[in-house]
Amino acid sequence: MRFLLNGGLGVLAVLSATACTMSPPPGSSAALPAQVLPADARALVYGRTVSEVIQSQELRDKIPALFGADWMPASQGRGQVALGAAAFFEKGGPLRMVSIAEKDYIAVTGCVANACPTRLVLLLIAEGGWPLLARLDDSPVPHYYAYSSAGETPPANASTIVDAGLRALQSVGNAYP
Q1: In sequence order, what DSSP letters do the residues of 124-171 get, joined into one string?
Q2: What percent of the chain has pLDDT over 70?
């Protein structure tokens, strides 16, 4: 199941019987408790680099599903992200672990290689491989995404979770490459 959460824009479209676009829940600005965890092997379960994570057997279909039509460039008649979300993983940062509201996630950061200061992505992978949550910064309004498998519904507060993870990463230095 895939949801696209687009900051404050409201419900945009139902994509299929199991996917829809929705805005963050009211009151989502409340911060969740979050912290960066000490490095351990869990951060490397899908690979040692961002490229390896994106191409890992367990995630290579889930990550494009997370971003849906935004995975490919908008010029190909798809999505709302001009370059496509895949381009935001050109330059990857370190893989880290974050704990958000007592749930652990692998934090994957990346950016468009020639536009790192303004075109950024944060992907959170919950233990077990889902849900996947993401924030893509390509404009003044970030794009939020949530994906879950096995008939589970992604968390309704996905944007709040991702923002809490970003704040935790920023609290220990530059969150992005």
Answers
A1: EEETTS--EEEEEESSSS-EEEEE--TTPPPPTTHHHHHHHHHHHHHH
A2: 83
What DSSP state is assigned to residue 46? T
Distances (CA, A) of 113 to 32, 83, 119, 177: 31, 12, 9, 9
Contact 96, 122 (CB under 8 A): no
pTM of the model: 0.83
Rg (C-alpha) for the chain, rounded Å, is 15
CATH class in words for 2-13+34-171: alpha beta
- Residues 6 or more apart in contact with residue 36 via CB below 8 angstroms: 96, 97, 98, 107, 168, 169, 171, 172
Specify burial of residue 78 (Cβ count, 10 A radius: 0-12, 13-18, 19+). middle
Going by the DSSP 8-state scheme, the letter that residue 38 receives in this structure is P
pLDDT tens digit sequence for 59-86 = 999 999 999 999 999 887 778 899 999 9
Q: What is the pLDDT of residue 31?
A: 81
Q: pLDDT tens for residues 118-160? A: 999 999 999 988 899 999 999 888 999 999 987 789 999 999 9
Please tell me what DSSP assigns to residue 47: -
